[in-house]
Design a protein that fits this description.
alpha+beta, Killer Toxin P4, Chain A, Transferase(Phosphotransferase), domain 1, 24 strands
Length: 633
Amino acid sequence: MTSWKFVMFFLVHYLVSLVIGLTSATDHGCPNSNSTYQSNVNFLLSSLVSNATRSKGFSTGFYNTTVGQDPDKVYALFLCRGDITPITCQNCVNLSTSQILQSCPVEKEGIKWYDKDRFDQLVRTTMKEAANEAAVSPKKFSTKKAIFTTSHTLYCLVQCAPDLSSFDCNSCLEQSFVRMPTTKEGGRVLVASCFNQFEFYRFYNENVTATPPPTPVLYSPPPVSPTPVSVARPKGKSGISSSIIIAIIAPIVVAVVLFIAGYCFLIRRARKKNSPPAADNAGYDVSTTVESLLFDLRTIEAATEKFSTDNKLGAGGFGEVYKGILPNGKAIAVKRLSSSSGQGAKEFKNEVVLVAKLQHRNLVRLLGFCLEGEEKILVYEFVMNKSLDYFLYDPERRAELDWSRRYKIIGGIARGMLYLHEDSRLRIIHRDLKASNVLLDGDINPKISDFGMARIVGVDQTQANTNIIVGTYGYMSPEYAMHGQFSVKSDVYSFGVLVLEIITGKKNSNFYQTDGAEYLLSYAWKHWRDGTPLQLLDSTLTDSCSRNEVIRCIHMGLLCVQEDPADRPTMAAIVIMLNSHSITLPVPEKPAFFVGSRMEASMATKEFDFDQSKSKLTPRSVDDASITEVYPR
């Protein structure tokens, strides 16, 4: 063998007897390569996709290139079947580069053949079979395996909560399959009451998951005579008929089975109660990598029609947001960051991976990113019902939010903020919690957006105070707005303002009254002090609200906006207040500060960057940033 070192891989979709087929991956082993060679391999594979998309030969589905100098020169090429689309070919190239690094990390030669369609179909078919079995099984649990190639076996596992009906279990698993990441070899999806996982290795104990043998039949009725005859019933020595014996034994057997099933259910429920729910604490997905989050710029441009103004959803402090549709029909929200981001490419990738690992039902999920040339783009899940302010501040649309929905929204925001503050591995301080940063899904569940932006764009995130005040005036706590001191209690203050806005249906910064209370917090405090808190209630809620819940939420909101941060409750305490009405709340103190004139109130609509070195406020549209305290947990 010559001293040349090379990596070669093919992506070949080929048709044999009208059936899509796949040749198994072949790795030609050689001794471990040196660090220079390995660096060349990593560099060539990581840059191959973007280079290929720009090459003249890409339209033919073929591309080859080299990196490095002899004796560590690396060669690579790919070849796609002639009838597939460029986007599909690009996706296969991207996937194969990831797979070849995993399956042949140190070899001097590697070849990959890949057929994505057949792999996707095998995963979904096997998962569906497992779901059908799980739905009718007592444990609501099933495993399945299927042969993909001669050297690759697919292993699948599904499970539902035992208290689900067969129909609900099947429905839950079907919903989880929609989110199944079939673009890579292995993945899992966790939702509220079920989950699924598939891998190319046996990740479960087959001895435990094996199907138990059929239960032996305890009793078989005697055959029926073809003609009506009179037959004496057999009796035991005591003269008791067999039907009486069965009537005695059967209830005992049923009672024992029910007792065992009930005991197992209670044990499982106790374990579930002592650990966070799967969907709330799917939390920190350690399998997330840069490769799994990377989107190609051409794919983003095609999805958004080259960032068409017709697809524009809005603009924030760090860029504009567009709606996009991926080739598979999935809707996404694309945030095109401005060029002022302070992060380098490597740091940007690392921070995106960290934030993407944070998953909670009340957070908008970051799906990935694109980093090509001058473009820095974030890709989020698309939330269909726009933001809370779209409904809350509109005289007509706010009627769609009755009290039960508003109470549900308050609770969801509280749980999402608790996750950011205490339950994730990173302590995220949002710094700009407000109605426009809370999105609503199809079921009017709240999803907090733009958390972790400080990490992604490189805003200072390691200090307990800062010279750069990022946020929206009117939602900022006094210690943060005036002294640059931030903490989780800064977010609690913003949450308190938001709760009072949800109850009144009025925006804090545009609130005017003729009785001397020109600011929402002073208006709320006046009615609380006068013993008329229900006067704060949005007029559209008069007939739908629970008086006790409304008064308790006003009480909680006033506790959140107290001047001393130490007097404000934590998000953990707030969640308990919302879930338990038997807890007595402390007496609130006067809110932190009031806007003294209408001129100052009009200033509250602006977003500010407060540079303490210049001792002045200057408007800056950077309302989307959040902050993170970085330390091991």
